[in-house]
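quick one: 1,3-dihydroxyacetonephosphate bound model?
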Amino acid sequence: MGRTFFVGGNWKCNGTSEEVKKIVSTLNAAQVPSQDVVEVVVSPPFVFLPLVKNELRPDFHVAAQNCWVKKGGAFTGEVSAEMLVNLSIPWVILGHSERRAILGESNEFVGDKVAYAISQGLKVIACVGETLEQRESGSTIDVVAAQTKAIADKVTDWSKVVIAYEPVWAIGTGKVASPAQAQEVHAELRKWLQANVSAEVAASTRIIYGGSVNGANCKELAGQPDIDGFLVGGASLKPEFIDIIKAAEVKKSA
Ligand code: 13P
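yep, here:
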């Protein structure tokens, strides 16, 4: 299958330059499995991207937390995909639920963003996930399938996409999805890719889990067959992020 484990750290809207330097030096000193076992990507706020890119060890990579839906120009406050490429930023997180919910990003808008970012040469961590209300009403799979479809409608090169399943009710709440709950949705997403894109894309696309992942729960989650890594929020600002990276070893011995 060849799905290299993927661990992303989403720093969200956190940090001062001093704090950022401290996190980077902790990461730089860490002993972690090699790049063929785990791909590590950290995502600082835009303003710290050059600093982190310059100081971070070369086997770890950086991601922006968003970029504009089309070519830059008269869009005050936005950052374009071209600018990220110009700074050699390889990855971008798109469709995070905090942007979908608070800033009203629709499925279609996220699909357009993913396609444009890829067309400019970026790789994308594309986020999907249901709210608590949607889970309780039994529509989880329909919701994540519709979010994935809006991306699939616009994307042809799936080698540039990692899907992050992040149930909204698990983000920042300390209420992690159980390994069985996460595995169920990951397996359904893979089935969806198989039925609607191709068997090859279904087998090779990494589907990572996000939502209250920490040093204590990461190994059990990593042991699930369709969980190919994590997108970590709060714990990515702490030294335990290194333990989460090391959870990749679970896959190696599986
Ligand atoms: P937490 O790990 O803080 O729950 O955040 C998850 C997340 O939103 C990552 O993108």
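The chain has a mean pLDDT of 97.
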